[in-house]
Amino acid sequence: QDKRADLRANNPTLKFGDIGRKLGEAWHKLDEEGRKPYEAKAQQAKIDYKVAYAKYKEIHPNSSDDEKPPKKRKKKDKNAPKKPTSAFFWFSKKNRPRIK
């Protein structure tokens, strides 16, 4: 978050994905000492979250997603007809040899 604004100000034409890529490259270039302040912030944020979540659970004890059973998928009927091919798949089928 600290570096994103600087990178955006210095390179206003960069797209969102390019900014993320550049930030990732910068992160990999950092040594242990350079990463320590960010890792400390992340650790503190994790602790703050756990405290806030514990307070939330005290107030809302029955609002847990853990207790809900997972939804089961319906079994597929092997005799059912297949869905029709979409326009994109027809397009892909026609243009795939040319693109490869």
> What is the string of SSEs from the N terminus onward?
HHHH
Our count of helices gives 4
Helicity range: 55-70%
DSSP strand count: 0
Rg estimate, integer Å:
25 Å
Question: Can you put this structure into words, describing what you see?
Answer:
With 100 residues, the protein is mainly α. It contains four helices and no strands. The chain has helices spanning 2-10, 16-29, 32-59, 87-99. The model has no long low-confidence stretch (mean pLDDT 81).
Short overview:
The chain has 100 residues and is an all-alpha fold. The chain is 64% helix and 0% strand.
Defining key terms:
about 100 residues; mainly alpha; about 65% helix
Helices and strands, with pairings:
Layout: H1 2-10, H2 16-29, H3 32-59, H4 87-99
